Design the sequence.
């Protein structure tokens, strides 16, 4: 058996999704997130650092300019808009025209162990059938919004919960053992 994957093997071992939501499933409002939980941002950074991250153009737009591209991660952004794509490339993003191209770019960027899909809702919808991991922060907030978390069907099992004051970190796995 070869000890390393051959270079033409384009199958990452794991695709994860990561998001924060209210208890009602809101993930976004007016192009942003309707809460401020620094511990969640630290958690996001800790988990995604060193791995390629895939996002939709509106999620890229939601980051303040000084925070993008997210450091220490290849930022892969999906867009069909040529002008926006050129601007994002100049700012340091890898811009691709579709989800499969995003996965290919992530693998190219050393994403053979773990690739993160970081939103928004349109990206989670596309990743749902190929992802096997979801890291979900549930924020105890009644904020309303216009963008919602994907529904995880019964193939998904919550495998870990870490409760904190006002929020909890949940890990969900497709085909995982119940915690
Ligand atoms: N709470 C969280 O964890 C979290 C995480 C991420 C985002 N958010 C929030 O979610 C909201 C944004 O999410 P969203 O669902 O509205 O937008 P989104 O998924 O971030 O971006 C949508 C855009 O991505 C591009 N796109 C998506 N699929 C594509 C495909 N297959 N091929 C080519 N381009 C594609 C298109 O860009 P073009 O229009 O340029 O063609 C599309 O308009 C914001 O409020 C943000 O703050 C929250």
Sequence:
């Amino acid at each position: 058996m070869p000890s390393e994957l051959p270079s033409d093997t384009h199958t990452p071992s794991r695709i994860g999704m990561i998001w924060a939501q209210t208890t009602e499933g809101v993930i976004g409002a007016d192009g942003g997130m309707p809460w401020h939980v620094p511990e969640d941002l630290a958690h996001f950074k800790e988990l995604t650092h060193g791995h390629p991250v895939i996002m939709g153009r509106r999620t890229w737009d939601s980051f303040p300019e000084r925070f993008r591209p997210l450091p220490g991660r290849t930022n892969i952004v999906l867009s069909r808009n040529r002008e926006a794509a050129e601007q994002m490339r100049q700012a340091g993003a890898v811009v691709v025209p579709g989800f499969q191209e995003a996965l290919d770019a992530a693998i190219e960027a050393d994403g053979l162990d773990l690739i993160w899909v970081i939103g928004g809702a349109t990206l989670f919808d596309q990743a749902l059938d190929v992802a096997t991991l979801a890291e979900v922060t549930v924020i105890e907030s009644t904020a309303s919004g216009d963008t919602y978390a994907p529904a995880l069907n019964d193939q998904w099992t919550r495998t870990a919960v870490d409760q904190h004051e006002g929020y909890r970190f949940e890990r969900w796995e497709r085909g995982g053992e119940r915690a």
Q: What stands out?
A: The chain has a mean pLDDT of 93. The longest strand covers residues 156-164.
